[in-house]
Amino acid sequence: MTTTPPASQDAADAEVRPILEVEGLTKEFGTSSSSGRWSLGKRTAGPPLVAVDDVSFTVARGETLGIVGESGCGKSTLVRAVLRLLEPTSGTIRFDGIDVRALDAEQLRHLRQRIQIVFQDPYGSLDPRMSALQIVREPLDVHAVADASERDGRAARMLELVGVPASQHRRRPHAFSGGQRQRIGIARAAVLNPELVFLDEPVSALDVSIQAQVLNLLSSLREELGLSYVFIVHDLAVAEYFCDRVLVLYRGAVMESAPSKSLFKAPLHPYTASLLSAVPVPDPEVAQRRRRLVLPGQVTPRAAGATGCRFRERCPVGHGREVCRTTDPELIVTEVGHQVACHFPGEILAENRSLVGEEA
User: Fold this and answer.
1) Which of 75, 109, 221, 285 is least surrounded by Cβ atoms within 10 Å, i.e. has the fewest?
2) pTM for the complete prediction?
3) Residues 6 or more apart from 2 whose CB is under 8 A from it?
Protein backbone atom coordinates (compact mmCIF):
# COMPACT_ATOMS: atom_id res chain seq x y z
CA MET A 1 0.00 0.00 0.00
CA THR A 2 1.31 3.47 -0.93
CA THR A 3 1.05 6.21 1.65
CA THR A 4 1.58 9.92 1.24
CA PRO A 5 4.21 11.32 3.60
CA PRO A 6 2.95 14.01 5.99
CA ALA A 7 3.57 17.66 5.15
CA SER A 8 5.99 17.89 8.08
CA GLN A 9 8.12 15.14 6.50
CA ASP A 10 8.14 17.00 3.17
CA ALA A 11 9.31 20.14 4.96
CA ALA A 12 12.02 18.20 6.78
CA ASP A 13 13.26 16.68 3.52
CA ALA A 14 13.36 20.13 1.90
CA GLU A 15 15.40 21.43 4.83
CA VAL A 16 18.00 18.64 4.42
CA ARG A 17 18.08 18.73 0.61
CA PRO A 18 20.68 21.10 -0.89
CA ILE A 19 19.24 24.24 -2.46
CA LEU A 20 21.34 23.56 -5.58
CA GLU A 21 22.67 20.28 -7.02
CA VAL A 22 24.85 20.29 -10.14
CA GLU A 23 26.06 17.00 -11.61
CA GLY A 24 28.29 16.38 -14.62
CA LEU A 25 27.76 19.85 -16.08
CA THR A 26 29.57 20.43 -19.38
CA LYS A 27 29.58 23.41 -21.73
CA GLU A 28 31.35 23.24 -25.09
CA PHE A 29 31.89 25.88 -27.77
CA GLY A 30 32.79 25.28 -31.41
CA THR A 31 36.18 26.25 -32.89
CA SER A 32 37.56 27.13 -36.25
CA SER A 33 40.30 24.83 -37.56
CA SER A 34 42.15 27.78 -39.08
CA SER A 35 42.25 30.17 -36.11
CA GLY A 36 41.43 28.00 -33.10
CA ARG A 37 39.55 30.94 -31.59
CA TRP A 38 36.34 30.76 -29.58
CA SER A 39 33.13 30.86 -31.57
CA LEU A 40 29.64 31.13 -30.10
CA GLY A 41 28.07 30.18 -33.41
CA LYS A 42 27.62 26.74 -34.88
CA ARG A 43 30.53 24.36 -34.78
CA THR A 44 32.91 24.26 -37.71
CA ALA A 45 35.91 22.02 -38.37
CA GLY A 46 38.08 21.01 -35.43
CA PRO A 47 37.19 19.67 -31.99
CA PRO A 48 35.01 21.82 -29.71
CA LEU A 49 36.60 23.67 -26.83
CA VAL A 50 35.41 22.65 -23.38
CA ALA A 51 34.74 25.68 -21.17
CA VAL A 52 33.11 23.65 -18.38
CA ASP A 53 34.06 19.99 -18.09
CA ASP A 54 31.99 17.52 -16.04
CA VAL A 55 31.58 19.77 -12.99
CA SER A 56 29.57 18.58 -9.98
CA PHE A 57 28.84 20.40 -6.72
CA THR A 58 26.08 21.19 -4.24
CA VAL A 59 25.11 24.27 -2.27
CA ALA A 60 23.46 23.78 1.11
CA ARG A 61 20.81 26.13 2.43
CA GLY A 62 22.41 29.14 4.07
CA GLU A 63 25.85 28.24 2.71
CA THR A 64 28.28 30.37 0.69
CA LEU A 65 30.19 28.38 -1.93
CA GLY A 66 33.20 30.14 -3.43
CA ILE A 67 34.38 29.38 -6.98
CA VAL A 68 37.98 30.48 -7.53
CA GLY A 69 40.55 30.35 -10.31
CA GLU A 70 42.43 32.53 -12.76
CA SER A 71 40.70 34.50 -15.50
CA GLY A 72 39.72 32.10 -18.28
CA CYS A 73 39.22 29.09 -16.00
CA GLY A 74 35.48 28.91 -16.72
CA LYS A 75 34.03 30.42 -13.53
CA SER A 76 31.56 32.80 -15.17
CA THR A 77 30.67 30.29 -17.91
CA LEU A 78 29.87 27.73 -15.21
CA VAL A 79 27.50 30.12 -13.45
CA ARG A 80 25.81 31.20 -16.68
CA ALA A 81 25.30 27.54 -17.63
CA VAL A 82 23.77 26.78 -14.22
CA LEU A 83 21.40 29.74 -14.66
CA ARG A 84 20.73 28.71 -18.28
CA LEU A 85 21.86 32.07 -19.55
CA LEU A 86 23.98 29.71 -21.64
CA GLU A 87 22.51 26.33 -22.52
CA PRO A 88 24.66 23.49 -21.09
CA THR A 89 25.93 20.81 -23.45
CA SER A 90 25.19 18.09 -20.89
CA GLY A 91 24.66 17.53 -17.18
CA THR A 92 21.99 17.90 -14.52
CA ILE A 93 20.96 21.03 -12.60
CA ARG A 94 18.48 20.78 -9.75
CA PHE A 95 17.25 23.74 -7.73
CA ASP A 96 15.27 22.73 -4.64
CA GLY A 97 14.63 19.38 -6.33
CA ILE A 98 13.43 20.98 -9.62
CA ASP A 99 15.09 19.83 -12.85
CA VAL A 100 16.15 23.23 -14.24
CA ARG A 101 17.11 21.88 -17.67
CA ALA A 102 13.60 20.46 -18.18
CA LEU A 103 11.89 23.85 -17.72
CA ASP A 104 10.47 25.79 -20.65
CA ALA A 105 11.02 29.56 -21.01
CA GLU A 106 7.95 30.55 -18.98
CA GLN A 107 8.71 28.09 -16.16
CA LEU A 108 12.31 29.30 -16.10
CA ARG A 109 11.15 32.92 -15.85
CA HIS A 110 9.07 32.07 -12.78
CA LEU A 111 11.95 30.12 -11.21
CA ARG A 112 14.22 33.16 -11.53
CA GLN A 113 12.19 34.91 -8.85
CA ARG A 114 13.93 32.49 -6.50
CA ILE A 115 17.41 32.77 -8.06
CA GLN A 116 19.16 36.09 -8.69
CA ILE A 117 22.60 37.33 -9.72
CA VAL A 118 24.79 40.33 -8.83
CA PHE A 119 27.21 41.23 -11.62
CA GLN A 120 30.82 42.35 -11.40
CA ASP A 121 30.43 45.79 -12.99
CA PRO A 122 28.35 47.99 -10.65
CA TYR A 123 27.81 50.56 -13.39
CA GLY A 124 27.39 48.56 -16.59
CA SER A 125 24.75 46.32 -14.97
CA LEU A 126 22.49 49.27 -14.03
CA ASP A 127 20.29 51.17 -16.52
CA PRO A 128 21.70 54.74 -16.60
CA ARG A 129 18.27 56.16 -17.54
CA MET A 130 16.55 54.88 -14.40
CA SER A 131 16.64 56.12 -10.83
CA ALA A 132 17.85 53.87 -8.01
CA LEU A 133 14.25 53.29 -6.93
CA GLN A 134 13.17 52.37 -10.47
CA ILE A 135 16.14 49.98 -10.86
CA VAL A 136 15.28 48.10 -7.68
CA ARG A 137 11.54 48.15 -8.41
CA GLU A 138 11.93 46.77 -11.96
CA PRO A 139 12.12 43.04 -10.99
CA LEU A 140 8.87 43.48 -9.03
CA ASP A 141 7.26 44.97 -12.14
CA VAL A 142 8.57 42.19 -14.40
CA HIS A 143 7.20 39.47 -12.15
CA ALA A 144 4.01 41.43 -11.27
CA VAL A 145 4.65 41.21 -7.55
CA ALA A 146 2.00 43.08 -5.49
CA ASP A 147 0.45 46.37 -6.69
CA ALA A 148 2.20 49.56 -7.86
CA SER A 149 2.21 51.40 -4.53
CA GLU A 150 3.43 48.36 -2.64
CA ARG A 151 6.24 47.85 -5.15
CA ASP A 152 7.54 51.37 -4.52
CA GLY A 153 7.47 50.79 -0.78
CA ARG A 154 9.18 47.43 -1.05
CA ALA A 155 11.92 48.83 -3.31
CA ALA A 156 12.45 51.78 -0.97
CA ARG A 157 12.74 49.52 2.08
CA MET A 158 15.28 47.32 0.31
CA LEU A 159 17.40 50.34 -0.68
CA GLU A 160 17.40 51.54 2.91
CA LEU A 161 18.31 48.03 4.09
CA VAL A 162 21.45 48.10 1.92
CA GLY A 163 22.41 51.58 3.12
CA VAL A 164 21.01 53.88 0.41
CA PRO A 165 18.96 56.59 2.21
CA ALA A 166 15.59 57.85 0.96
CA SER A 167 17.12 61.20 -0.04
CA GLN A 168 19.10 59.38 -2.76
CA HIS A 169 16.39 57.11 -4.19
CA ARG A 170 15.63 59.43 -7.13
CA ARG A 171 19.26 59.71 -8.23
CA ARG A 172 20.55 57.92 -11.31
CA PRO A 173 23.58 55.57 -11.28
CA HIS A 174 26.12 58.18 -12.42
CA ALA A 175 25.46 60.15 -9.21
CA PHE A 176 26.65 57.27 -6.99
CA SER A 177 30.10 55.93 -6.14
CA GLY A 178 31.14 52.42 -7.20
CA GLY A 179 30.35 51.00 -3.77
CA GLN A 180 26.93 52.65 -3.70
CA ARG A 181 26.14 51.36 -7.18
CA GLN A 182 27.01 47.85 -6.08
CA ARG A 183 24.65 48.28 -3.11
CA ILE A 184 21.90 49.17 -5.58
CA GLY A 185 22.72 46.05 -7.61
CA ILE A 186 22.51 43.94 -4.46
CA ALA A 187 19.18 45.55 -3.51
CA ARG A 188 17.85 44.77 -7.00
CA ALA A 189 18.85 41.10 -6.62
CA ALA A 190 17.40 40.81 -3.09
CA VAL A 191 14.09 42.62 -3.58
CA LEU A 192 12.31 39.49 -4.87
CA ASN A 193 13.26 37.61 -1.69
CA PRO A 194 15.29 34.96 -3.57
CA GLU A 195 16.65 31.85 -1.92
CA LEU A 196 19.91 31.66 -3.92
CA VAL A 197 22.05 34.55 -5.19
CA PHE A 198 25.01 34.24 -7.56
CA LEU A 199 27.71 36.85 -6.94
CA ASP A 200 29.91 37.30 -10.03
CA GLU A 201 33.02 38.98 -8.59
CA PRO A 202 30.89 41.73 -7.00
CA VAL A 203 33.78 43.44 -5.18
CA SER A 204 36.68 43.06 -7.64
CA ALA A 205 36.16 46.55 -9.12
CA LEU A 206 36.03 48.24 -5.70
CA ASP A 207 38.68 49.70 -3.40
CA VAL A 208 39.73 47.48 -0.49
CA SER A 209 37.89 49.53 2.16
CA ILE A 210 34.70 49.52 0.06
CA GLN A 211 35.11 45.78 -0.55
CA ALA A 212 34.93 45.19 3.19
CA GLN A 213 31.74 47.25 3.48
CA VAL A 214 30.03 45.36 0.65
CA LEU A 215 31.11 41.95 2.00
CA ASN A 216 29.78 42.87 5.45
CA LEU A 217 26.52 43.95 3.82
CA LEU A 218 26.25 40.62 1.98
CA SER A 219 26.91 38.76 5.24
CA SER A 220 24.19 40.66 7.08
CA LEU A 221 21.70 40.05 4.24
CA ARG A 222 22.53 36.35 4.29
CA GLU A 223 21.61 36.22 7.97
CA GLU A 224 18.59 38.51 7.76
CA LEU A 225 17.02 37.11 4.57
CA GLY A 226 18.20 33.49 4.83
CA LEU A 227 20.12 33.59 1.56
CA SER A 228 22.49 31.06 0.03
CA TYR A 229 25.35 32.36 -2.14
CA VAL A 230 27.53 31.11 -4.98
CA PHE A 231 30.44 33.55 -4.98
CA ILE A 232 32.77 33.80 -8.01
CA VAL A 233 36.03 35.34 -6.85
CA HIS A 234 39.66 35.46 -7.97
CA ASP A 235 40.92 36.95 -4.69
CA LEU A 236 41.54 34.05 -2.31
CA ALA A 237 41.83 36.37 0.69
CA VAL A 238 38.21 37.37 0.05
CA ALA A 239 37.23 33.72 -0.40
CA GLU A 240 38.83 32.76 2.93
CA TYR A 241 36.98 35.55 4.74
CA PHE A 242 33.57 35.13 3.13
CA CYS A 243 33.06 31.53 1.93
CA ASP A 244 32.14 28.38 3.84
CA ARG A 245 33.45 26.08 1.10
CA VAL A 246 35.66 26.69 -1.93
CA LEU A 247 35.71 25.07 -5.36
CA VAL A 248 38.98 25.53 -7.29
CA LEU A 249 38.44 25.55 -11.06
CA TYR A 250 41.09 25.18 -13.77
CA ARG A 251 40.39 24.91 -17.52
CA GLY A 252 36.76 24.19 -16.76
CA ALA A 253 37.24 21.33 -14.27
CA VAL A 254 37.31 21.05 -10.49
CA MET A 255 40.87 20.70 -9.19
CA GLU A 256 40.03 20.81 -5.50
CA SER A 257 37.01 21.31 -3.26
CA ALA A 258 37.03 21.67 0.52
CA PRO A 259 35.80 23.69 3.49
CA SER A 260 37.63 27.02 3.55
CA LYS A 261 39.60 26.33 6.73
CA SER A 262 40.84 22.98 5.45
CA LEU A 263 41.70 24.32 2.00
CA PHE A 264 43.66 27.32 3.21
CA LYS A 265 45.53 25.37 5.88
CA ALA A 266 46.52 22.38 3.74
CA PRO A 267 45.92 22.66 -0.03
CA LEU A 268 46.47 19.34 -1.78
CA HIS A 269 46.58 20.42 -5.43
CA PRO A 270 49.62 22.30 -6.82
CA TYR A 271 47.31 24.77 -8.55
CA THR A 272 45.57 25.62 -5.28
CA ALA A 273 48.97 25.98 -3.58
CA SER A 274 50.13 28.38 -6.28
CA LEU A 275 47.03 30.54 -5.87
CA LEU A 276 47.43 30.62 -2.09
CA SER A 277 51.12 31.50 -2.31
CA ALA A 278 50.13 34.73 -4.10
CA VAL A 279 47.75 35.91 -1.36
CA PRO A 280 49.19 38.94 0.51
CA VAL A 281 49.73 38.43 4.24
CA PRO A 282 49.69 41.29 6.75
CA ASP A 283 52.22 39.65 9.12
CA PRO A 284 55.76 40.53 7.85
CA GLU A 285 57.29 37.46 9.51
CA VAL A 286 54.84 35.10 7.80
CA ALA A 287 55.28 36.96 4.52
CA GLN A 288 59.05 36.54 4.75
CA ARG A 289 58.73 32.78 5.32
CA ARG A 290 56.24 32.28 2.51
CA ARG A 291 57.61 31.17 -0.85
CA ARG A 292 55.84 32.36 -3.98
CA LEU A 293 55.04 29.62 -6.49
CA VAL A 294 54.94 31.34 -9.89
CA LEU A 295 53.40 29.27 -12.67
CA PRO A 296 54.77 29.47 -16.22
CA GLY A 297 52.46 30.24 -19.14
CA GLN A 298 48.78 31.04 -18.91
CA VAL A 299 45.35 29.41 -19.00
CA THR A 300 44.33 28.14 -22.44
CA PRO A 301 41.08 26.45 -23.53
CA ARG A 302 41.07 22.65 -23.56
CA ALA A 303 39.87 20.76 -26.63
CA ALA A 304 37.35 17.96 -26.27
CA GLY A 305 39.03 14.56 -26.26
CA ALA A 306 42.35 15.84 -24.87
CA THR A 307 44.10 13.34 -22.61
CA GLY A 308 46.27 13.68 -19.53
CA CYS A 309 46.14 16.13 -16.66
CA ARG A 310 44.99 19.56 -17.87
CA PHE A 311 47.41 21.28 -15.47
CA ARG A 312 50.57 19.30 -16.32
CA GLU A 313 52.22 21.91 -18.60
CA ARG A 314 52.36 24.40 -15.70
CA CYS A 315 52.63 21.96 -12.81
CA PRO A 316 55.83 21.89 -10.70
CA VAL A 317 54.95 18.37 -9.50
CA GLY A 318 53.55 16.54 -12.53
CA HIS A 319 55.47 18.08 -15.42
CA GLY A 320 57.42 15.30 -17.13
CA ARG A 321 55.71 12.45 -15.28
CA GLU A 322 54.22 9.83 -17.57
CA VAL A 323 50.99 9.29 -15.64
CA CYS A 324 50.24 13.01 -15.74
CA ARG A 325 50.84 13.08 -19.51
CA THR A 326 48.59 10.13 -20.32
CA THR A 327 45.88 9.99 -17.64
CA ASP A 328 43.41 12.61 -16.48
CA PRO A 329 43.26 12.35 -12.65
CA GLU A 330 39.89 11.55 -11.10
CA LEU A 331 38.36 13.73 -8.38
CA ILE A 332 38.95 11.66 -5.23
CA VAL A 333 37.88 12.16 -1.62
CA THR A 334 40.89 12.43 0.71
CA GLU A 335 38.89 13.19 3.85
CA VAL A 336 35.32 14.16 4.68
CA GLY A 337 34.38 17.14 2.52
CA HIS A 338 37.80 17.41 0.81
CA GLN A 339 38.19 16.37 -2.83
CA VAL A 340 41.17 16.73 -5.16
CA ALA A 341 41.95 15.81 -8.77
CA CYS A 342 45.68 15.06 -8.69
CA HIS A 343 47.88 11.98 -9.12
CA PHE A 344 50.18 13.25 -6.34
CA PRO A 345 47.91 15.08 -3.86
CA GLY A 346 49.71 16.96 -1.12
CA GLU A 347 53.19 16.41 -2.54
CA ILE A 348 53.79 20.10 -3.27
CA LEU A 349 53.03 21.06 0.34
CA ALA A 350 54.98 18.14 1.80
CA GLU A 351 58.07 19.41 -0.01
CA ASN A 352 57.67 23.01 1.08
CA ARG A 353 55.38 24.17 3.90
CA SER A 354 56.56 27.74 3.25
CA LEU A 355 53.96 27.97 0.48
CA VAL A 356 51.44 28.59 3.27
CA GLY A 357 53.79 30.53 5.50
CA GLU A 358 55.07 27.64 7.61
CA GLU A 359 58.60 26.38 8.04
CA ALA A 360 59.62 23.60 5.64
Assistant:
1) 285
2) 0.87
3) none
